[in-house]
Structure formats: structure tokens, C-alpha cells
Amino acid sequence: MVRPTETHAGAADMATVHPVDYDDATDEVRAVYDDIMAIRKTDRVNTFWKHLAHHPPTLRRTWDSLKQVMAPGALDPLTKEMLYVAVSVAHGCDYCIASHTASARRHGMTEEMLGELLAVVGMAAETNRLAQAYRVPVDEAFQDPPGSPA
Asked: Per-residue confidence at 116, pLDDT binned at 50, 70, 90?
């Protein structure tokens, strides 16, 4: 059964599709689920993936992209998760805020770090809107000089 959930606006939302449980999944979807559980070292698949399972190509593409983007690289896992939280807050995605805040905490994010992160997100949202509302042109000093490598 799909239950309404409270959104950031306080309105009840209903999922557009029912989650696809492992037992009801096609072999193609089960292969992605198995990979998710193996990579994350868990015995469950998050609801997000179960909803994407209605379109297996999107499920596979999104999971493959997420694995690549969130893999170790120049940015450490905590920084990547905190960036994910910041973007999720900016876009108003309650699911992603909850999921990536939990993951960031597992990677060592403290309550103080979360507070500072949200303060930066809030400040950026305010100044972004002010700059847009006033149609402030970009300072020449912030622009790359002609011929400089991008």
C-alpha cells in the first residue's frame, strides 16, 4: 500500500507508482538490486530504487551514474555527501535530504557541520535570489580573461 507522505510544503503527496519489491522484480531489476545491496553491504534496497524499477533502463543508468559520481576521487565521501545534501535542500527533495544526510552522518558529519552546511545553503539561496532580482552583472574580476584555459 502506498501511503501519503508529508512534503516540505506540508501537503500530502502520493507516490506515482508502487515500489517494486525484490520478489516481484524482473531479472534485469534484480541484477541492479543485487549490485546495490553488494556495493552498500546491506540486505535491503531503498525505496527510491524500487520506484525507479518501473523503468529498468532508468534504474540501471541512474545506479551506474551514481556509483561513478560518488566513487572515491578528488573529493572525499563526506564532502560528496554534504554537497548532495546541499543540492537536495536547494531543490527541495525531501527524500534525498533524508537519504544523504543519513549517509553524510555515517561518513562523519556532525550536527555542527550540518548546521554550518545549512547556513551556507540558506545564505547562498538568499544572495542568489537577490543577485537575480537585482539582475546584478558579473564583475569583470570574476570572469576568465580571453584565451585562458577553462
From this structure: very high
Classified as helix, coil or strand, 52 is helix
Q: How confident is the model at residue 55 (pLDDT cuts 50, 70, 90)?
A: very high
Cell numbers for 66: 551514481
| pTM, rounded to two decimals | 0.82
Facing residues of 13 across strands?
5
| Domain 74-137 = CATH 3.40.50.880 | no
Q: Where in the chain is the domain with CATH 1.20.1290.10?
A: 15-71, 74-137
Query: Residues in the chain, how many?
Result: 150
Query: Is the separation of the CB atoms in 37 and 66 below 8 Å?
Result: no
Q: Which three cell numbers stand for residue 11?
A: 501537503
Which helix or strand (DSSP H or E) is residue 6 part of? strand 5-6
Per-residue model confidence as pLDDT tens digits over 75-102: 999 999 999 999 999 999 999 999 999 9
Please give the CATH superfamily to which domain 15-71 belongs.
AhpD-like (1.20.1290.10)
From CA 106, how far away is CA 72, in angstroms rounded? 16
Among 114, 64, 70, which residue's Cα sits nearest to residue 89? 114
In sequence order, which residues have a C-beta less than 8 Å from that of residue 102 and are 6 or more positions away? none
